[in-house]
Write a structure and sequence with these properties.
67% of the residues lie in helices and 3% in strands. It has helices spanning 10-13, 23-42, 47-69, 77-98, 105-118; strands spanning 2-3, 21-22. It has a two-stranded antiparallel ribbon with strand order 1-2. The chain has 124 residues and is mainly alpha-helical.
């Protein structure tokens, strides 16, 4: 399924067709925005910004976990199980970050790995 989720290109450069984004494009964009918030929070932001960024990350992973658990999700079962485990880890680690007992860097690394996977880039 594709979504027509972008401003028509003609508004920017004179083209008459709309840019089309895929579900993967949208997922990548969401991970990129949340990861940007986490990076900003990591760089000495006030505590309320740090908590808000980690909370957004937990929201993202909670939504992803709910989608993975939905019966209509067509991903292979092993991939769903692996991603669900990663979601649970990220949410737990996010709670540890909010309580002051863990680093935000781990959440950033997990999100970057997800972004690479969505772009079919090799992860190392």
């Amino acid at each position: 399924m594709t979504l027509n989720a972008v401003t028509p290109m003609k508004a920017h450069v004179g083209y008459t067709s709309n840019a089309v984004r895929t579900d993967k494009d949208n997922e990548y964009s969401i991970f990129a925005r949340v990861t940007h918030l986490l990076r900003r929070a990591q760089e000495g932001a006030p505590m309320h910004e740090r908590l808000a960024a980690v909370h957004k990350n937990n929201d993202l992973w909670t939504i992803l976990a709910a989608d993975l658990a939905h019966s209509g999700n067509s991903l292979p079962d092993q991939l769903k199980a692996d991603l669900l485990s990663l979601a649970l880890f990220s949410i737990r680690h996010g709670h540890a970050v909010m309580s002051g007992g863990a680093s935000i860097e781990v959440l950033i690394e997990v999100n970057i790995s997800m972004m690479k996977g969505l772009r079919n880039e090799a992860t190392t």
